[in-house]
Specification:
2 copies of one chain form a homodimer. Chain A has 2 domains: 3-85, 3-Layer(aba) Sandwich (Glutaredoxin); 92-212 and 235-240, Up-down Bundle (Glutathione S-transferase Yfyf (Class Pi), Chain A, domain 2). Chain A contains 9 helices and 4 strands; from the N terminus they run βαβαββααααααα. Chain A has helices at residues 15-24, 42-50, 74-85, 92-116, 129-157, 172-187, 189-195, 200-211, 213-220; strands at residues 3-6, 29-31, 63-66, 69-72. In chain A, a hairpin with a 2-residue loop joins strand 3 (63-66) and strand 4 (69-72). Chain A has a 4-stranded mixed sheet, covered by helices on one side. Chain A is an alpha+beta fold. The interface between A and B is large, with 45 and 45 residues.
Amino acid sequence: MRYELYYWPSIQGRGEFIRLALEEAGAEYVDVARLSGRGRGVNALQHFLESHAVELPPFAPPFLKAGELVIGQTANILAYLGPRLGLVPKAEAGRLWAHQLQLTVTDFLVEIHDTHHPIAGSLYYRQQKTEARRRAKHFTRNRLPKFLEYFETVIDRNASGRGFMVGRSLTYVDLSMFQLIAGLRYAFPETMAKLEGEIPGLVALHDEVAARPNIAVYLASKRRIPFNQYGIFRHYPELEKP
Amino acid sequence: MRYELYYWPSIQGRGEFIRLALEEAGAEYVDVARLSGRGRGVNALQHFLESHAVELPPFAPPFLKAGELVIGQTANILAYLGPRLGLVPKAEAGRLWAHQLQLTVTDFLVEIHDTHHPIAGSLYYRQQKTEARRRAKHFTRNRLPKFLEYFETVIDRNASGRGFMVGRSLTYVDLSMFQLIAGLRYAFPETMAKLEGEIPGLVALHDEVAARPNIAVYLASKRRIPFNQYGIFRHYPELEKP
């Protein structure tokens, strides 16, 4: 199966969680909006959002074309890919638990994004900077530690003792933890420097994921879009000032 | 199977989407935190959030105990219950589509909630009233119509032509649409009064769900907690003023 990923071509964003899973598994895929030519580019993505001929329209990217299926919502795409790419346990209990954790990642991502866009996604950051500072203060003091300490607890309590989030081997949830830690280090370096001593399991997991052969090749390639000021994770130093 | 639902006892909140599915299906369930006695009440809920003995701790309610499983995240619970309660198509494509829509409901709910809490959930509304007015203005003008018109499009394009969101019969997504319309009417009555002419399919679906025998009995019972100023949907008239 050659998968087609549809996501904005200039940011990591939510699409990155899918890219990491496809890359780790060595899956055959095309990152449609980043290519040019017939049926490629951002126009191909817009088609699914705007054409009246699309019977099951996604609300927003990312979405994945897998044969006849068009699957939207990041966590839903990962739940679909997980068993096919060997990135989730086979038993239902393990799949439900992995998906539950991924949906908690989804919740966290909204809060991370809204630190720089607390009023409206349609406004520029500079138009909501005052509110952003206020929201970011509560985020870095309360919400960021709460989410990361929760995920650390999940690793701690994983009976397998192998340092993964779910069961005895790598899942898409571990890849998402890598991306969270990397992104939070970019966006909130001072906050993370203070906090990382309390989340040793997550830090070790980040390093283990980064060193996996397929992920290491991907991270060093041009396919990995650098962090920038257009995605979910943005570095505005004033948002870490008390 | 007797299901145990764990959710805050005084609000509809995210738990209501699960209650509606259980009620429609006539499933046997207990709403644990609303009862008293051994293993009941809010303490029983807190146990899962706080006890070190819980191996797979949920981040937040709602969660569902189904035999040995403890399943968290509203949309994940519905994805689990759907096939068991006959509230989702049997084929994988239909289940993925229903879940994708439910995750879009999840996204919408965060934005609805954040109209009254744009800065922090840990602060009172009165402490973020200025920011709430600004966020709510963008929400009622842009985001609310965008989400509802999207869901209307989904009904329109459903090839079965039966007025449901997914396929030819009722799914948990339809129950969630009922709850969204009811909640938005409570929270933003003026906005909804102006908009409802443009979403006839959703309005008809709301009425059809409300009239289903099990749902009608539920809505008239004490099990249905009234809308109030503590949940996701809150009525602050100033948030509709331009």
